[in-house]
Structures are given as structure tokens and as C-alpha cells.
Write a structure and sequence with these properties.
Helix content: 10-25%
Structural class: alpha+beta
Distance between the termini: 35 Å
Largest sheet: 5 strands, mixed, barrel
Radius of gyration: 17 Å
Shape: globular
Number of strands: 7
Strand order of the largest sheet: 1-3-4-6-5
Length: 154
């Protein structure tokens, strides 16, 4: 049952990607489009940060496995940042190792460190989250069965 649920959620994400491609085609060939769709596992229990305004941010790293031509696996690590109502979903229903699907946009930051060196960072600003399953094999958890798709408000 959990396999069927995960497959259905993956199909939903694929449909969203097809819609995004259709929008990209309609707005024109030479217009820019910044939309990212990823499915992966959380590398750690996330970090929550609160601002003086009361807003919160959730930061974590998503591990993506990629099969190479020679048959070996390559893992890519991508930083994600979640804002708005989705922060509560991540706090309540996710943990290290959980599989999630995200839709968001690529972001780039640079800053000057205390050592005087310039630092650079790419991350994904998450707009939509789909919880796809627990980190434990064969276990159907509330994380996987809960309808936790939400739009992050910035």
C-alpha cells in the first residue's frame, strides 16, 4: 500500500512538472523560468530558525540518488529552505531519512565571511511539499498517509 501511495504522489509531481513545462512553452521560448522539482530523502533532522517578526524558516539538505552510466550510484546533496505554513508540517511530520517531494525555485546567495573570504550558496526555496514516506522500510507512518501538501507563503 505504501508503494502505491508513493507512486501516486510521484505521478502528481510529474503532472505538476508537465504543467510547468506547458506554462514555460506558452510564455515564450526566450523567457526565463525558474522552477525545480525534486524527490529525495532528508539528510538530518531540520534546523528551525525564528525571526523577530515571528516568521520561521526550516533548513535541511535533501539527498538525491542518481544512477550513473557505469551502474554506480552518485548522491547529490541540495540545500532546501521552507517558509510559511509548511514549516509546521516539516516540524510535525518529518525526520531524518524521510522521503519528500518538493517544488520550488533555485536561489543563490553570497556573503563575506569573518575570515574575509567570499562564500557562495545555492539552495531551493520550497513552494510545495509532498510527504512520500517514512525512513523505515515497510512502515506506513502518519507522515506518509497524511495529506500534507501545502503552499509555502513568503
Amino acid at each position: 500500500r505504501s508503494w502505491a501511495t508513493a507512486r501516486m504522489m510521484c505521478l502528481k509531481l510529474k503532472l505538476r512538472l508537465q504543467v510547468a513545462r506547458a506554462i514555460c512553452w506558452r510564455v515564450g521560448r526566450f523567457k526565463m523560468f525558474n522552477k525545480v522539482t525534486l524527490i529525495g530523502r532528508l539528510c538530518k533532522d531540520g534546523e528551525f530558525k525564528a525571526f523577530n517578526s515571528g516568521a520561521e524558516i526550516y533548513e535541511n539538505t535533501l539527498a538525491l540518488n542518481k544512477k550513473q552510466k557505469n551502474g554506480t550510484d552518485k548522491t547529490i546533496f541540495v540545500k532546501i529552505k521552507v517558509f510559511g505554513n509548511a514549516v509546521n508540517i516539516m516540524r510535525s511530520y518529518t525526520q531524518k531519512g524521510d522521503k519528500i517531494g518538493i517544488i520550488g525555485e533555485l536561489d543563490y546567495n553570497s556573503w563575506q565571511g569573518q575570515d574575509g573570504k567570499k562564500h557562495y550558496e545555492h539552495s531551493i526555496l520550497v513552494e510545495s511539499i509532498e510527504l512520500l514516506g517514512s525512513s523505515k522500510k515497510g512502515e506506513s507512518s502518519p507522515k506518509a498517509t497524511q495529506k500534507a501538501q501545502t503552499q509555502a507563503q513568503r
